[in-house]
Amino acid sequence: MDDKRIQNIRSFILNYMKTVHFEDIRLEQQEIAVDLKYLYDLGGFDVVEFIEEFPKEGIELLEECYRDAYYDYKMNKISATVSIHNLPDIINKKGNRILAIEDINCSTHGKLMEVEGVTVLATKIKMAMKKASYVCTACGEKKIQSIENPFEMNFEPICPKCAQSMALIEDESEYTDFQELKLQQPLELMSNPEDPPKYISVLLENTPGIYNGRVKVTGIPVKTQKNKKIPLYDLVYKGIHCKTVDEKLESDFTDEEIKTFREISENPDIVEILSELLFPEIKGHSSVKKAIFLQQIKGVKKGNCRADSHIIIITDPGVGKSKMLRKLALIPGNAYASANMSTGVGLTAAVVQESTEIGENTYVVKPGLLIRANKGTACIDEFTTMKKMDSLLEAMESQTIHINKGGINTKLPAECAVLSACNPRWGRFDENVPVMDQITIPAPVLSRFDLIFTIKDTPDRERDREIAHHIVKVHRAYLGVGKTEDLTFSSRKISGIDVDFQFICKYIAYARTKAPVVSDEAEELLTDYYLDMRKGAPQITARQFEAALRIAEQFAKARLKDTVETKDADDAIKLMSDSLKEVAYDKETGQYDIDRIMGLSKKDRIPMMAVYEILKDLLEESVSELIDVGDIVEKAKEKNISEEQVSASLRKLIINGDIDEPKVGKYRVI
């Protein structure tokens, strides 16, 4: 190496540390990260080139210069750790694209690079040796050996004085926190999105523990050899610096874009227009489309109160529910999964034992869909095919997931909206059976949804004709024949502005930045709605009021307003009513009954409680452990409860787990 070149590089770095990292020195930071792109832009071309050629020596030089700069100001020696990140394009590009996980191969082995990936597996934190301390067993000479690759420790140092073997002193060696991540290359960074997913194991030193999210890792590919007899190697990625990457929608807007957003927001039907354009391939279902569009905008975050609305759509087959979910998953930050391929834990987070690069049967965290969709929307198809839905309760309400297993104790963020879709119990809706009796979702989970929509495929000649024409129009547009302005693959002009899917995504991102305050008039309207509903149905709770408030805020944000006005509140009430009328409206009483969502209407709850008490009393009076259904019916008649009501009540009590039927017609309390 040219000594003069090293001297010039060292001089530049020292000056850089004294100026750019002066605040770190003042605050006595012993761990810093150097932004190589910023250093390059300041004129450190030779420095960056040197670090690219000799990553190990380059980082050591950065640490040495930071220690010297620190000493010059503080007159105190420290043991500093310097990492590097944000590589300039001159290092981190292949042709006209940024290097990615798929580029980690023998040609990049040992070279500095930076890749992005989504965490699909994370081990517990372990302790790894960073510097090994050796002593000569003959003369007592000591030696410190840095460990660059933890998989290549199969060496035995020789004493520089007497040429005898040296022994490892574990207690005097230096250690660091160590973790392995498995990253998947994001789809949008694949050179060919049709290729199978690409993965890489990443080894991180000095880490506080990363268990979820999208990360950008600066590092060097290193080789590992599992079978020492065969000269074949695996590549892993040794991380130098790791930071999380925000996956939410882009939040930087030009003045021109903001002006455009404000112009189009003046259209009084902006919510209806954009919600239709979000799903132009689907005909009809305007309330559902509107609710989903508003869900993407979110309400106003206030303390621990969630700003996300949860929506479930229960539909007959063939109405386009899966298309809507898959389309929505294209919005940055959103994620899609089919529940028939997942468990409840698979949608939240799982802690399992697996063999990894750093050990056999290592406890690892596997983040689920709700964690991957943090800050976005988790789109869950075929929702009712999922087992053990109770694991979703914490994630949907508090928007966090606690993990305490296998030495891993952490809390993962799941701050996302949930959009679920499923078919009714028997595949299609039966008009002769109440809607809620055809939904097989546990009541505690169902109650977490702000909006519940049902879509029935009822034959209607004119409507079916319109749908058929629309399907043909979509097919023609995909083939480039007869493209129309209201389809995704072309833009539609609204107020002279071209609106397509990308525009809608940006509009949603900008609308999210708004934080409207509820006006007195809107507050009064929402409060009156809540009180009117409570008057006839005390089962309407503050949870429904909060849902209405969130939706009113979403309407105001969609219109780019700073205040939630009566129009927003009124539209929110209408959307809530559209949702409740199918699942909570009792035609016999003419009132809303939220207990229907819990699987039990008010008129069913009263006889069920009475039947339960009758069974308990009969068991106390009887020497038998089981009570015959005939005895229950006789007692129920005294309370004016019919035999049909008794049968229905016993069935629901069994479903709820309050009683069981060990023998046909024989019951007991559990």
What is the structural class?
alpha+beta
Number of H/I helices = 22
Q: First CA to last CA: what distance? A: 81 Å
**What are the low-pLDDT stretches, counting only 5+ consecutive residues below 50?**
482-490
Our Rg estimate from Cα atoms comes to: 32 Å
Strand order of the largest sheet: 5-9-10-12-11
Q: What is the global morphology?
A: globular
What's the level 1 CATH class of one domain?
Mainly Beta
Number of strands: 30
Query: Based on the structure, what is the oligomeric state of the protein chains?
Result: single chain
Largest sheet data: 5 strands, mixed, barrel
State the helicity in percent bands. Answer: 25-40%
Write down the overall mean pLDDT.
Answer: 83
Topology-level CATH name of one domain: OB fold (Dihydrolipoamide Acetyltransferase, E2P)
CATH architecture of one domain: Beta Barrel
